[in-house]
UniProtKB/TrEMBL annotation:
Superkingdom as given in the UniProt entry: Bacteria
Protein name as catalogued: ChbG/HpnK family deacetylase
Keywords: Carbohydrate metabolism, Hydrolase, Magnesium, Metal-binding, Signal
Organism (species): Spirosoma radiotolerans
InterPro entries in alphabetical order: Glyco_hydro/deAcase_b/a-brl, YdjC-like
């Protein structure tokens, strides 16, 4: 009799927990950054949305593969798309330039500087180490926003490439002003105000196997009732991406292939389903 009672209590408790999980599940925004940096990167981001768990896509408007990104995004009209505002061109073998006339943001060759903040591998080649002007940043951000909104009318938010939108308080205030002016409802700085928690890998994540396990660990750690964002950069291990790197980050192709593999992995999808995790986009943050 005692055994039956224990079994019944266990069943009832499990049902209660399941009901709680269904009524107040953790929410997770999976964001793929840097669409436009390469053809293979565009392909990977598209794949992670079509076949995987990615829900938000960040586009680098001045990047060389932006026109292809615009065309590809037509294949996924429901995808949440953000403007990944940028002031840098970090790779050694492929570069991009500002869209506007902003001399304080260009290097001697007319490209963006490779870094936002000082980097020992690129001395005096960061935005902050040069005499940048807020007026030039505003002009360039406006140019990127206006081109993106013409080509991709469903823009939902703004974010900052390599942290450029949080360069200082003035720049942060500028981004807030531009978001309001262009009627773009969300931007990075607003995530904290909305109580969104940044999630990261839990454990080593150098190899593909480590990356998968540490991502699964992260999913296991998500708590009911909370909203999380996970940001990474899908890619493919192709000759094109193998040629893209900068000092201190040489394994770009293998690293970003690992992201694509995780976000399309059946084990990841199954764990999300089992835990009742709700995948969301920026448009869902106010709901």
């Amino acid at each position: 009799m005692t055994g039956r009672i224990l079994l019944l209590l266990t069943f009832l408790f499990s049902g209660l927990c399941a009901g709680m999980a269904q009524s107040n599940p953790p929410r997770l925004l999976v964001r793929g950054d840097d669409m436009g940096y390469s053809h293979a990167g565009n392909e990977a981001i598209l794949k992670c949305y079509k076949d995987g768990i990615e829900k938000s896509i960040e586009v680098l408007v001045p990047s060389p593969w932006f026109p292809e990104a615009v065309d590809m995004l037509k294949q996924i009209p429901t995808a949440d798309v953000g403007i990944h505002l940028t002031l840098t061109s970090e790779w050694d073998n492929v570069k991009w330039r500002p869209l506007s006339d902003c001399p304080s943001l260009r290097d001697a060759d007319g490209y963006f500087y490779p870094m936002v903040r000082p980097n020992k591998n690129y001395p005096k080649r960061s935005v902050v180490e040069n005499d940048w002007k807020l007026a030039d940043i505003e002009k360039e951000f406006r140019a990127q926003i206006e081109l993106a909104m013409r080509k991709i009318p469903r823009i939902s938010h703004l974010s900052g490439h390599m942290g450029c939108t949080s360069l200082n308080d003035e720049v942060n205030t500028l981004v807030k002003k531009l978001a309001q002016e262009y009627h773009i409802p969300q931007y990075d700085a607003k995530l904290g105000e909305a109580g969104v928690v940044h999630a990261g890998y839990i454990g080593a994540h150098t190899t593909s196997e480590e990356k998968l396990q540490s991502f699964l660990n992260m999913l296991e750690s998500l708590e009911a009732g909370k909203t999380y964002i996970f940001v990474d950069h899908p890619g493919l291990d192709t000759p094109e991406v193998q040629a893209i790197h900068h000092i201190g980050y040489e394994n770009v192709a293998a690293d970003r292939q690992g992201v694509t593999d995780i976000w399309t992995n059946p084990r990841v999808k199954e764990l999300i389903k089992t835990k009742g995790i709700q995948l969301i986009g920026y448009n869902d943050l106010g709901k």
